[in-house]
Amino acid sequence: MIREVVDSRVAATAVAFQTSIGLAGAFLAPIAGGIVVDQAGFDTAFLLAGILAIFGIAVAWVAPEPRS
């Protein structure tokens, strides 16, 4: 999908950047979740995760389709 949106000359860089962001999120999410659980409890952590999930779904829902 990235290759549909960016210029072919920078497609490899764009894919690498997207992968890096995803890996950083996979690394940092459990750390941030643990901090939230320690500070506010599991209820708040799951509420925050649900809010972030709903926000992500809303952003994906309104995101424009790439032009072909």
From TrEMBL:
Span-the-membrane segments of this chain are 12-32, 44-63
* Presence of the UniProt keyword Transport in the record: yes
Q: Which UniProt keywords apply?
A: Membrane, Sugar transport, Transmembrane, Transmembrane helix, Transport
Q: What superkingdom heads the lineage?
A: Archaea
Q: Does the record's keyword annotation contain Membrane?
A: yes
**Which residues does the UniProt record annotate as the domain Major facilitator superfamily (MFS) profile?**
1-68
Q: Which GO terms describe its molecular function?
A: transmembrane transporter activity
Q: What is this protein called?
A: Sugar transporter
* Organism this protein belongs to: Natrialba aegyptia DSM 13077
